[in-house]
Design goal:
Largest sheet: 3 strands, parallel
Structural class: mainly alpha
Radius of gyration: 27 Å
Oligomer: single chain
Order of helices and strands: HHEHHHEEHHHEHHHHEHHHHHEEHHEEE
Number of domains: 2
Number of helices: 19
Length: 511
Amino acid sequence: MTRKKKTAIVFLILLGVALLPLLFLKVWGAYRLGQVNAQQTAQGTLISQELQERKKTPPEGKNLFEQPLWLNYLKEITGGGNYMVADSLSASNALSRWCAEQSRKRAYYQSFQPQAEPELEPQVGYLRPGYLGSTQRELLPTFETLQKGLKRVYDKAVPSDLRPMVEKYQAREDLSDEEKVLGVFREYFQSEKPAVEEEIKKSLAESSFFGISEEIYTKLGVSEEEYFHSPLNPSASLKTLAFHYGQTARLHAYSGQREKTLEELKTLLDLASLKGFNSTPLEGMYRCALRILSANTVHAIILEDVLNEEDLLSIQTRFSQINVMEDLLKTLEGWESICEIIFRYNLGLISEESFWPRFIVKLAHFSGYIDLNKAAILDLLRGARAAIDTEGQTLDYAAWKKAVDLPKSIFNILARPMIPGDGKASNAFLRAQSYRDAVILGCALERYRMKEGSFPEKLEALIPEYLPQMPPGTLSQGSLSYTRTEKGYELILNKLPELPKEDNMETIWRR
């Protein structure tokens, strides 16, 4: 045997030894992905096929983002790449300008508010009264402060568009200082573009969900691949809307203006009632935050005693229609669909780089490493979905934790960053469910007091006249305590009382 033949044989043997693990990995990856793709529903349909059909089938009703005002807003941030346009001075779209105006006004408003001591709200840490995470009454500035302006690190005078309102109320000798301050800020927060405000309210009232559908891709002239390389982020505008209507509803309640309070509160609840479609866990947690903000706003308004029994029943009914566990399930379904696209597009983006990145990506695909990671995250998401009971509105937390506990393995490096909310996404949804339950019970308790003259000794007294049944999931998961006090009551809900302090799920409603 010649030397060349020996060298060739040795080379082929070494090549075979090197390729053998890659071939084994490829077979293993194909097998695991095949197992996941073969998973079926109880009816025998492939889960992957069912999810694709659901992706094409949005919830009933209108998509907020297909309303003209919002579609034009999405076109602006798609073209300019300015994903925080709600706070941008260069905003040109009507909705963007409205959000920029209200963000500026809110910043001025907050700068005029006195600072509170941390111990004023010990149950949730340092939350200044008036902040929408708190239910305490505003710490309003004095009218003298508005007249003189502020002194911080540098002099800060009353804004020019606020000054005429201050001068107007200065002449009102029939009003107290607090009434003057409330009057000034109620007018200050009125939009300079009332037509845009009306369109915002109308679009929210007419819509039942929001999400980026394939139809929206087409209307925006953006491909699915482009969207996932640079995803749209309209969350800033949704947050601005929630803060604005939560704030104005409270200001009207402080003034005893029931109809105006209900008008602003309705828009906030229209926003909080929106469902998600093809959403990410981050968007799902935004919806949870909107619902918690809405619940705190309702709580703060109830403390002002401006609502009647019919108003409370309407609010109670609206919150009863929110199924937070169904929203969590839909969020996971949307995230599974998005994860598949990320594997298809975002990893392909690397292939446009120089030789070595391209080589590594091609090797990962050839070896089955991509398939292994894809199988891992899809299997995780389906295990997490199986832990959710949408009918009973509960979550099997042990099953959830087991599903999302993806081992720290070299074979899961790409899958681990895709775990929804680092495995704690469920906490945000459970907390939102607790706040929803607190609103339902709080409204029923207020209606009981209005008719019976005092709060009941036990929650069971609410059923069935004031509450058809306890909110689904309230008694079957976590703890619920109700204590009637000398002046009112204390309601404490905790979906996961076993969690450590840093993950505390306790929700407190005091009256």
